Task: structure prediction
Amino acid sequence: MRNILLSILVASCMLSTEVYAKEYTNSVRGSYGIVDLGTSYSRMLDVLGQPESSYRHVVYDRNGWPHKAISYFYTINNAKYEITVVDGNVFRISWERE
Result:
């Protein structure tokens, strides 16, 4: 019984580290410039090119109001970036090592 509980504890710790592996940053450097928070969607495409993939979702502001968002995924220099765009501007940039 003790081995089973220990195995469950180890597995849950391994899964939780995967969830918290992302870090947040204020900017990302592309081939033709820098994309930072507040940059327009069209400028992001000019600097980083077409994303590998994307998905639509909802984010909430500090007052709890929902906003439509699209997250775009890029791989740059062995790091995976997720850039979230809300109302046509970069809202959040997160990254993790491959």
